[in-house]
Structures are given as C-alpha cells and as structure tokens.
Design goal:
Chains C, D: Residues 130-224 form the Acyl-CoA oxidase/dehydrogenase middle domain. The complex is a heterotetramer, with 2 copies of chain A and 2 copies of chain C. By secondary structure, chain A is an alpha+beta fold. Chain A has 11 helices and 10 strands. The longest helix of chain A has 37 residues, at 230-266.
Chain lengths: 382, 382, 405, 405
Amino acid sequence: MKIKLNDDQVEIARQAQRFIENECPMEYVREMFEDPRGFTDDSWQKMVEMGWTAMLLPEAYGGLDMDLMDLCVIFEAMGSSVTPGPLFSTVLLAAETVKVAGDETQKGRYLTGIAEGKLRGTLALSEPDGGADLGYVRMEARAEGDRFFLNGTKLFVPDAHTADFLIVAARSGEGDDTGGGISLFILDSGLEGISTSLLPTMDSTRKLCAVELKDVSVRQEDMLGKQGQGWDYLQRSLRRAQVGLCAESVGGAERCMKIATEYAKERVQFDQPIGAFQAVKHRCSQMFLEVESARSLLYWAAWTQDHGDSKDATLSSSAAKVYCAENFKNVACAAIQVLAGTGFTWEHDLHFFLKRAKANEVMMGDAVYHREEIARIMEEEE
Amino acid sequence: MKIKLNDDQVEIARQAQRFIENECPMEYVREMFEDPRGFTDDSWQKMVEMGWTAMLLPEAYGGLDMDLMDLCVIFEAMGSSVTPGPLFSTVLLAAETVKVAGDETQKGRYLTGIAEGKLRGTLALSEPDGGADLGYVRMEARAEGDRFFLNGTKLFVPDAHTADFLIVAARSGEGDDTGGGISLFILDSGLEGISTSLLPTMDSTRKLCAVELKDVSVRQEDMLGKQGQGWDYLQRSLRRAQVGLCAESVGGAERCMKIATEYAKERVQFDQPIGAFQAVKHRCSQMFLEVESARSLLYWAAWTQDHGDSKDATLSSSAAKVYCAENFKNVACAAIQVLAGTGFTWEHDLHFFLKRAKANEVMMGDAVYHREEIARIMEEEE
Amino acid sequence: MDFRFTEEQEAFRQEFTSWLEQTLHEVREGDTPRSFESMVEWGEAARDFQKRLFEAGYAARHYPEEYGGQGRPTEEELIVSETMAAMCPEYRHPLVVTLGLVSPTILTCGTEEQKKKYLPKILDGTHVWCQGFSEPNAGSDIVNVSTRAVKKGDHFVLNGQKVWTSFAQMADYAVMVVRTNPDVPKHKGLSYLLMDMKAPGVEVRPIIQITGDQEFNEIFMDDVKVPIDMLVGEEGQGWMIAITTLMFERAMGDAMIANTQLKGIENMFAVAREVKRSGRPVIEDPRFRQELAQAWIETMVLKCHGYRNISQLLEGGVPGPEGSIGKLLWSETGQRTNEAVMHLQGPLSQVMKGSPWSVDEGRWQHSFLRSKGYTIEAGTSEIQRNIIGERVLGLPKDASRAQRA
Amino acid sequence: MDFRFTEEQEAFRQEFTSWLEQTLHEVREGDTPRSFESMVEWGEAARDFQKRLFEAGYAARHYPEEYGGQGRPTEEELIVSETMAAMCPEYRHPLVVTLGLVSPTILTCGTEEQKKKYLPKILDGTHVWCQGFSEPNAGSDIVNVSTRAVKKGDHFVLNGQKVWTSFAQMADYAVMVVRTNPDVPKHKGLSYLLMDMKAPGVEVRPIIQITGDQEFNEIFMDDVKVPIDMLVGEEGQGWMIAITTLMFERAMGDAMIANTQLKGIENMFAVAREVKRSGRPVIEDPRFRQELAQAWIETMVLKCHGYRNISQLLEGGVPGPEGSIGKLLWSETGQRTNEAVMHLQGPLSQVMKGSPWSVDEGRWQHSFLRSKGYTIEAGTSEIQRNIIGERVLGLPKDASRAQRA
C-alpha cells in the first residue's frame, strides 16, 4: 500500500505547475474567457511539446503508455488555474474512446494524430432532452445501403468548434434503453450537414458547443467499434474523463482555499486578521478538509481505472465525480464569502473558479445521475 | 394585518407555562418516560380543569369554540417541557376527526365526553408497510350484513393503550388509491378482537402503540361520516394535528436554544465564556433564527386552518410540518454540541428534546411526504 | 392574529394592481422583467417609473403630503411595495437605497429645510441617491470609517474613499458617514452628511462584479466641499443615525424580497415543466419535486417572518436587532433557491442568455451569480450572527472586540 | 500509487479472516454484532476475545516479541484491525483506549521496566486501561488540568477529578495527565503517570449517556499514592507525551472506523430492502436511493482518506495535525449516515430494540443516539477546526487564546 504520488508524478506535477504559471497566467485565462476560440495555437503547441497529448496513449501510436494518475496531476495543475483549451476533450473524451473502441486503422490515424498534436477531437454525447443523463441518446443513425445518416442535435460538446473530428453517439437500432443500440461514429468535423455553434456558457474558459447534424452521411468504416456496443465503450472512456474532471476540481478547490487562507491572514478588521475569528478560521479549515478528502477519493478513483475491476472503476469514478465537484463548488463559494466584497468582483480571480466549479458539477453527469449509478450497482451487489 | 398573539393568547400561554412548571416538571417527565402508562390521572385531570380538552370544541358539546392558534400556545408550552400525556391524541386526532365527520349522536357522545375529560380517544391510521405515507391504508373493512369486520394492524397509534375509543381508518371499498375508498370507524378500545401493545420508542414521553384488529365486528352506526369519504375528513383533522405538532416543536426548540445560550454564557474555557467564541456564538444565533422563523411559519399555518381556504391550509400545514420539525431537530442537536459532554448525558434534560424532535420528524408524515404534497398542489396550480 | 389586510386595503391593492398592469404593459414588452443594456439605462428607466408612480399618487403613500407623499396608512405603502416586488422588481431595485434608506433617514432625522428640499425630488423620481458607508478598511468593521470631514467656515471638506456603493454612477446625491472628530472613540467621531454627487472633487469608479454588471462603485473624494446645512443631526451622531433609523425600512425591504423570491418560485416550477431530464419534464421527477417543494417552503418562511416583523412595527413596536434574522433568511434562502434552480436545469444551467438553448432567457444563471453577493452585502452573514448572538441573546463579545469597546 | 496490499499480506488477511470467522462462530450467535447487558460483561467479553487473539498470535503483530508482540510489519496489525473493525467491532471497542492509546505510549515513551511490566498483560487481555485526560474545567481547554500530583518520598499523591473516561469501570490501570508543577505556564506543569485503578482513594462513578449506556465515567482521586516509577518520561513532559505519541494510532483508529462504517452501509442497504414505504421497499424509491448512495460515497471518502494517512505514516512520514481531518470526517459522516438510516425507516425509526417491529434489532436507533457524541469525544469538532486552522493553515489564534500563550 502506497497512497501518494511517486517521484515521477511529483516531478510531472512540478513541471505542470511551472508550465501553467509561465504559459497560462490568469491574464491568459481572462483573454480566453472572452475569446470565442478559447485557446491559442501557441499554448496548444506547448502542451503537445510537454507530451500531455501522448501520455495515456499506447507506444505503438506514439504514446507514452502512462497511467491515468500521471495525467491527473496535470489536470490538477490546470484546475488550479482554470486553464483553457481542448486538452480534456482531446485526450480524455476523444482519445480514450478511440483507444477502447477503435480498430487498427482508426487508432493509427486518430491516436497517432493526437499524440503528435496534429489532431484534436471531442465527444458529442448529450442531447437536449436528456439533461444530465449521460445514457440518454436518441439521435438517429439511419442505415441506408453501406451508409448511415445521422440526424439530430448534440449539446454541451466541449471544444467542438475547434475539433478536427467528432465522435458521435447515435442509435442505429431499435429501442431506447441505455445499455443497447447505441453506436459510435467518428467523423470529420467539416463534413457536410454538421453545424457547430458556440454556447454562451457561464464558464467561458471551457467552450461548449451545440452541434446539429442534418442528414450527415457516414461510411460503415467510420463506425467506431461494433454496432450497438457504443455504451459499453463509452462507459469506460467516460469514467476516465470523469476522473480527469475530478483532478481539475481538486486543483481548483485547492487554489481557492489558498487564496482565502492568505486573505484571511492579511485582511484586518476589528484590529485582527480576520482569520483569527472562528467564523473565518473554521470556514478555511473546512476548505482544507474538503480539498484533502476529495484528493484522497480522487487518488482511489484514478488508480482504480488502471488497476481495479470494472465495478470498482465505476463506483469510484461516480463517487469522485459527485464528491470532488461538490467540494470544489463549496470551497469556491466559501472563498468568495471569506473575501466578501473583494471576492465578488470581476477583477478578482475567484469567480472564474466558481464558474468552473458549477460547470464541473453538471458536466459528465451530475450528482443525481452518479448517485443513482452507485445505488444501482450497490443494489445489485447484495 | 396583526401577526402576534392577542392578549388572551398571551394570558393562555402564561397560564400554560405556569401549569407546566408546577405540574409537569422534568422529574415528572423522567418518571413518565419510564412509566408504561405515560401520565398520571392527576395530571390529566388538571389539564381537563384548565379547559384544554374543551378549547377547540363547539359550545354545543361543552366546548369553548376557540381557534387552533389558542390551543397552539398550549402545545408550545408543553413542547418546552416535552410534557407527556394523551392531550395531543385526544384533542387533535380524535376530537377533530369526530368534529369534522361525526353525526349528532357521535358528537354528542364523544365530543362531550372529551370536553368533560371523561373520554380519551386516538386515531389509528398508519400501517406497517406504509412508512411515513399517511394515505397508505390497506386495512380491510369487510361488509357482512349490517356489520363490518376489521382486520389488520395499525402502527404508531399514539396513546392507544390508555384511550377509551379508537378511530380506525380502513378500506370498505375497492381499489387502493389514496383519495377514495377509505372509511372511518369509531370503536370502543375494549372491543373483542382489538389487542394493543406499547411500542418501545425512542421518545418514551409520548407513547405509541401497535394495534391489531382481528375480525373486529363493528356496527353500521359506528362508521364515522360517509362511507368512502374517510380521507377527506382525515385531511382536515390531520392538518390541524400537524400544526399542533409544529407548536410543540417550536416550544421544544426554543427551550433547547435557551439552555444552550445560558450554558454558553456560564461555561468558561480558555478563560472566556464559550459564547464569546464565534463557533458557539454563531451556533446559538442560528438556533434563534430557526426558532423564530419556525414560529412565524407556525403562526401562518395555525391561523390558516381556521381562516384560510383549504389549499392554503394544506400547503401551510405541510410546510410548517417540514420546517418546524427539522428546525427542532437541528436546534436540539446544536444544543447538545454546545453543551458537549454535559449535553450527552442522561442526567441533563437535552436528550429528551432530541428524542421528541426525532419523533416529531416522522409523526404525521415525514418531510419527504409533505414536500411531495406541496409539489403536487403547486404543480396543479399553474 | 390576522394575516389579512382590511377590505379597504384589499380594494386599494386591486386598484394599484390594475394601474401597475397597465403601466407595465406600456413600459415593457411581455410579462417578464426587463433587462437593461447599461446601469445608466436601468437608472433612467427606474426614474421614469418612479415619476409615473408619483403622478398616479402611488409614491410614498405614507409620507406627509407636504413632502410629496399622500399621508395614507403605512399598509398602503406596503401594498405598493409588495406588488411591485412581485410584478416588477426591476423598476424598484435601483431606488432601493433612495427610497428605503435615504428618504426615511431624511424624514426622521433631517431638518425641516432638508425635508422640503430633498424629499419631493426623491418621490417624484427626479433624484437618485446612493449611500457611502463602507470603505476599504471599514467593511464588516464599519465604525472604522476614515473618510475625513473637516469643518472650514460654512463647509465641511471631505477627503477619502467609499466602496461598494450601489448605483453611485447614476446618483445625484449621496448620504455619507464621515469622521468629523478623530480624537474620540471610533463610533463617536462619526457624522452623517448629505453630499451632492456633482460637486467638484467627487469621482465615481464602477466595480465590475462577477455577473459582469456594475452595480457597485468606488467613490473618491478629493477636497469635496459640503455645506454645513447638509449635516443631518448633530456632529458625532452619524453612527446612531445610520443604524437606528433604518430598522423599519429594512424589515419592509426584507419582506419585499420575499415577494420577489416567491415570484421566482413560480418561475422555478415553470422551468421544471420546461426542462427535461431523461426525456421527461423535471417536474415529474420525485427527486426534484422535493427540491421544488423545499424552495417554496423556505421562501414562505421568509414571507411569513417578514410580515410578522412588519406587523410588529406597524403597531409601533420598536424594531430590534431581531431584524438580522430577516437578512440571514432572505440571503441564504435566496442562495439555496438559486442553487436548486440550477440543479433542475442540469447541464442547461451552464447556458447564459443569448442562445436558443438558454432556459428562461438565462435569468437564473445571472441570478445564481448575483446571489453570491447576498450573504456579503448589507452586512455579511457573520456580522448578522454576531449581532444576534450579542445584542439579542446577550452572549459576550470576543476578546479582541471587547477590549476595543 | 498502489491501493493494494502485497500478496503475502493478502494471504495473511485470508488466514486471519478464517480464524476470525471461526472464532466469532464460537463466541457469538449469528452474524450480527453481539450486544451486552452491562459494561462489565462487555469488558469481560473483550478481554476474553483479546486473549484468544493473543494466543493465536494475532495481538499486536507489529510489537517486539519481548513485549508480547510478533515483531511483524505494521501492515499485518492494520489487517487485523480492519478485519475486526468490519466483522466484530464490538470486541475491539472497549480496548480502543488500551490498545490504541496506552500501549503505544508505553512502548514509545515508557522505561524498559514499564514496557516489560505492562505491555504483555495488555496484549494478552489481562489488563484493561483507561485514560484520564479531561476534567470538569478542562474539556476543550485541555491544558487547564488541575488534578494535582505532589511528590512525597517515592510516591506522588494525587488529588482531583477526571471525567469522560471511557470504560473506567472495567479498567485495571489508567494513564493520567496531572499537574506536578502549578508555578509554570499551564502545559509545562503537566506530567504523565500510570495509575493502578485499584489503589486506595480511587473512586469511579459511571455517567449515564443519552443511549442509556454507561460508557463514560468520572474518576475521583483522594490522596491516591502513585509510585514514582510509574511516571512516564520526565516531569513536565506530560503534555508533549499526551499529544505527540498518538498520531499514528489515531490515524489507524480513524481508518478502522471507516471499515466499521462501511459495514454499516451494507447494513443500510439491507434495511432499505426490508423497510417499506407506500407498500414498496424503500430501496426502490429514487429519493432514498440518493441518500443511500451519498452515505456510501462519504464513507468511502473516509476509507480512502484514512488509508492515505496510514500509508504516509507507514513510510515513516511524520504524522501532522492534518490528522484532525480524519476525526472530523468520521464523526460528521457517521452522524449523517445515522440520520440517513433513520430517514429511510420513516416512523419505524422510533422503535427501539425489543419489539417485533424493531428494524435490524434497533441497532440504528442506538447508533443514532450514540453518534451525537462523535463530534464531542476525543476533541470537539470546534477544537479540530481550530487545530487545522492554526497549526496546518497558519491562521492566527484568536485574541484571548493568543494572549494566554
């Protein structure tokens, strides 16, 4: 038993932290918050050079064959600065899904492209009437000859507007149960019939899009994995993406805690640093508790994805998703309260964290969804 | 608009408080907690002499024709001392149901008996598989000739072991929807086939019973109100009983707040009364907030039962039931935390309040039940 | 006990409601609250609306006629306020300080001359006022005010900085708490002045808040001359005036917020009908039904408690620090309700206004962010809990504050 | 990162689990934890069980053999503890102080003679110890201890009173923090003594707690003689010994509680299958499913965090005040879970053991009440939050406590 970062991970974390400080300072975040594209090529290229797009990929495709935990320390660092850009969508949504579902040709093309930083992808899953239910897929993939025709709307697709390819979940069969009938298609984002529009979201540091598909014609060989097995593949990649999001939440929460604690030491009212008052002190203590306990759960969830069984992998990713996102939100709100007026200004950075925290709460399934997942599995168990 | 107790009510409250202090000190409560009967005849007789059993009854039956709010100030006083005894079951469950559903003969017999203090009654409603769902009635009332035969088990019947009569809700018709098919029967508690046993409950200051009915034979004239209309009647009396329970909760919560606040002024640690520390001070402030805001809602709920329409009466009693019970529980727990070790002892009185608070949470429908009631009504409205 | 208004009052409510419906029909499109492009535009709209209220005889019903009011019972003002709070809070919001804090202070503590000069222009919508209390080093510790006012001849000369001043950028005048005597204990050296915002040396800088709006401002004062006849009360009474005259209006304000929030709950049910989860309207989901009901319950608590406070004051009761409950209730309930509405919306909660996918025109997204200020503005929750603990329950001050007092 | 034990350790776990299953089969009826009629009976059962553990070689695997241990890696002790925590917490609970606090203190700070004399009798179940720290005026303010120990010849003479001492009524010995020097600053005048509970002048009075049990006691000391060789460490080191040697065991204790609570969650699901609402098992109700899942999540947090702490310590890391998180986590999670299980049961939650209507033999009713002590015992939540705020985050002490230090 050894539950802490190993030396390599500590080093990765240090490098990531330094990278973020140098390349993605808060001024950059503020700029990208307003910028419709949401990241600069320069910043993306540097992340690629750091090897971040290749970490989880197999060596055969130019990857580094590392563990999810290794990548998580990077997402922690990015979370600590609400770093913008399509890393999450590319390496956790797109690459992981191709990894689990793609054939050799697809892997060769897409994974190699991602590892080299030449391709960016994303996953188009959620639909307007599904809410936070990840398994709600109604988009139709109508078979005609050796082609499928996709029709429908996908929402909350991260970074679709700058992605080179999209993985789209649609129903190629009968019925609408969650488990069966969903197939995945991997398409060029420039295909005819696809129109992508940026959603004006609260957390504009991570861009989300609406993607409409009108009679988009897809070849048989652009199906990703076996027909009707899409949900199985997705479950595996979504779990990993959820854990990545948790790492981001822990990093963000920790930053909020530090901001609040520093402020509490310096801000004087009633001739005392406000941190001497228990109302403030205990609020800061609670933040510390929420950050560190979330981190403990994150470690388990990240480790379990690579080394645990599929039941534990699902339970842990769902648990971490609920807990880390909620703690991030709580800590961000608490920090604003500690900073009071100052924390409520646009000028101060805290609001970017609050907005990211709110986004993380509902991205990749909200707490209600994941708790129901846990109840379902625990119920079966006994 | 005049939202405060009138002079009469202030006087009633004062008298009730004095009565409770003299006749029902905490030593009496402790004794009755252990005592299977749960009250003394002497104490009951004195409550009768105070007129408490007659307050809500029509003058025609020896009553005083007063408002529910008038009685609520008495329940507040009783709550402040977790006063034991069957007043609640007799005047709010039994009498109110007879008032709304009974015919002249029944009213003459039962209401007069109650007003005079000669009869005690209760309501047998909940069933084992219903949980906190008040509308779940499955007990069978099989018609045979001019008689009904009742079979089944009722749970959580307050004071059934000392009641002279029981009002029993049972299904005399087909189907099992909440609204229809329920009829009420009023029976002598000594009838053949009825067996009553005391439940060992956490809050032993209010006795709850299991009542089993085996082929209990009832005459047609012992049906209370019209056949199949039982739920309509019950809704009206249950609402009033819920409000009575709220008054009790507010009184109990206030007492806990006072105990904690006094302790916080006197107990010294770190050379300071602990009330000087914000962790304790703010906890006490929160108690005050919860007590006074619950009281505000209670006033509305109590007033609305006599002067509002049935929609408001239902909404307000459900809202108050949720809020007052939860606040009572919160305040009792918070008070224990303020008193720390001392609050955790049997010797100190606080635990009786915690136990009553827990009982009040689930009695007459829990929060989940009442919130669903509210959602149902609000949903219809628009 | 009686939760009703009298028949006469109910008749007045009907009359006013009709007038309001018609007026709203004239000034805004549709039934939903208007939103404004800029704070200045918002301020102008509020002034214009106040003018209409005044001309129709609905401004300050309870004020004496000589100052522009109608000399009517306070209940009528309450009816006007609560109806507006439910139907058009956006036209009242920029004037909350003016009508809720400034005019009652002038009415209660001002000289006859001050009342005649300022009140009518407030009531008819001519003038908007703001309030300069907080300073960078006087936030929760409000008696730490360091803006100096030095008497020179027939003027005070003001130097210093105020912060968190709502709507200063549209204000014609300000009420200011300033230090006129630095040599006495902190709260005793404060005085209460009226200040012309157009006076030379006054500079206003808006603060952008996390919603992107600019509700709050900094005010910088550099040798600003304030005539001595703009002093309210005596020198050194500033603190007392600031805290004691405002209880009634604060209680009324709290109750009004309840009405606005109750309207919000109606809206929340509408959102729950519209938004789907797993293909079904959220309102059918038993889990979210619990949240809907809970939000309604807590908001009714707010309303009942607010009315109970007002009713006590209407009878001439002395408003006490118990009023801090009202502030805590509306701020925390407001935050919880906003969280709950966001939950209902699931991922749609991320979409701000300006998209076909926006729910309810993005109102809740804005409101969610705005709500994070509730527990900070007008005295943080921590300060309210100190007030209740110390002034209501009689618990001792903590050592550091006890020493100072 | 690795959440697994080694294969060898897992093999040991299997071996121990088999032994435990069989032994439990011998000592109790059925699979559910035994309950006991009296504290004394409970204590005897725990002693007997400890004897069995000792004889089978499972007591203090990580202690040197010369003191009765097995000289094995700490992981094996961890495995013993966590298996017992899940399968039979009732046999460990009365010995938590003895094994978790007393024996590590003696091992770390005791003289060779003390170790040889006391440790073997602890490990083989002969002696139960209790701990006298708190006093009526030294609760949260624990350095305020006023029990006096005056040296006279080869004895200390003790006078004073301890309170909240768990299991004192069954204890053979006690560890005591006493004041040996009243003339130096508060914590510097304290010493750490071992005391024979059968010595003349020692009187134990049980305190009945809100469950009706008598877990805690008062200890009165009237001229109790304690030989000088029962002093641990030097005079004046009492406070340091009390707080610094216990971190590892506290971290381990916290992790063990996670296992007991996880077992509780299994049980909670079983309750949800059994108990009905509106005629259907509660486990089918989407609203309660959320509560079930949330309880499980929070308990897993406890477990993961506990393991993370232990793992750090196993590697020789220095235990820090971060451990206060463990205390807050288990106490607050434990309270919430108990509340949630009560909710599931609806009105059945009122029924205590001893009725055909009791759910799960009334275990949760007892446990709910007991849980109200969690945030009080072993340092209140308020104290834990002070520790984190001040010692981990470096926030300043409040004025009153800063002055004293």
